[in-house]
């Protein structure tokens, strides 16, 4: 009798864990179908020739000047927009959470950031062309009312800085959404304690607030970097392929009529995955370093 009760007691927790695990099944299937299988396809395709034979030629070709230049350009755009979006987004989030803005203004800005962070691709490119293109609304107004021609002064929407400006439209709101909960979690008692000990506002942020926020800031930077690093539709619709960034080059290799070489495209995508993996490893190392420092 006692053995039977023990057996039932052991089976009940096991069945409960199985039922709880069923809730993870959709996520596991989604991760396998849209993450693991595509990553495996890139890994296999990057080491194959068009006939399906094993080769290292695709990896060797990644060292070509045009391909290395595309990686460098993509990294530069990602760094600029991640840093710019991170700093401006942090300041905006600070104004929302700690700046004493009216509640309805906070709600409006937060709602706008939720929409703007997902506004990308062809609609975003068209919006910037209509606004800051050569015949865009702001360009024409400045030229008509003030005699200022942006394009005669060196501005070009279809260049590195023009694309970076376009990316900031969704990078800044994304940073606001990420960092706002962390700022809201900052306790007022920490600042009051620092001020009672004679610390200035600069000392509080340098010695208390920023160390606490450092892991979130690093994670936000990586997310913004990856968000810009893999962007394709916005850049292609805005520049028409004039900028040789890696996602456009991958699209040209996989879907193009002239540069059609899918296996090289797989190798290019694999290189992007490796770069992001190295960045995530660097973040993990920095986070551990900060954790030991805080202790």
From TrEMBL:
<comment type="similarity">
    <text>Belongs to the binding-protein-dependent transport system permease family. CysTW subfamily.</text>
</comment>
<dbReference type="Pfam" id="PF00528">
    <property type="entry name" value="BPD_transp_1"/>
</dbReference>
<feature type="transmembrane region" description="Helical">
    <location>
        <begin position="264"/>
        <end position="286"/>
    </location>
</feature>
<keyword id="KW-1003">Cell membrane</keyword>
<keyword id="KW-0472">Membrane</keyword>
<dbReference type="GO" id="GO:0055085">
    <property type="term" value="P:transmembrane transport"/>
</dbReference>
<feature type="transmembrane region" description="Helical">
    <location>
        <begin position="108"/>
        <end position="129"/>
    </location>
</feature>
<dbReference type="InterPro" id="IPR000515">
    <property type="entry name" value="MetI-like"/>
</dbReference>
<keyword id="KW-0813">Transport</keyword>
<protein>
    <submittedName>
        <fullName>Putative spermidine/putrescine transport system permease protein</fullName>
    </submittedName>
</protein>
<feature type="transmembrane region" description="Helical">
    <location>
        <begin position="67"/>
        <end position="96"/>
    </location>
</feature>
<dbReference type="GO" id="GO:0005886">
    <property type="term" value="C:plasma membrane"/>
</dbReference>
<feature type="domain" description="ABC transmembrane type-1">
    <location>
        <begin position="71"/>
        <end position="285"/>
    </location>
</feature>
<feature type="transmembrane region" description="Helical">
    <location>
        <begin position="231"/>
        <end position="252"/>
    </location>
</feature>
<feature type="transmembrane region" description="Helical">
    <location>
        <begin position="160"/>
        <end position="183"/>
    </location>
</feature>
<feature type="transmembrane region" description="Helical">
    <location>
        <begin position="21"/>
        <end position="47"/>
    </location>
</feature>
<feature type="transmembrane region" description="Helical">
    <location>
        <begin position="204"/>
        <end position="225"/>
    </location>
</feature>
<dbReference type="InterPro" id="IPR035906">
    <property type="entry name" value="MetI-like_sf"/>
</dbReference>
<keyword id="KW-0812">Transmembrane</keyword>
<keyword id="KW-1133">Transmembrane helix</keyword>
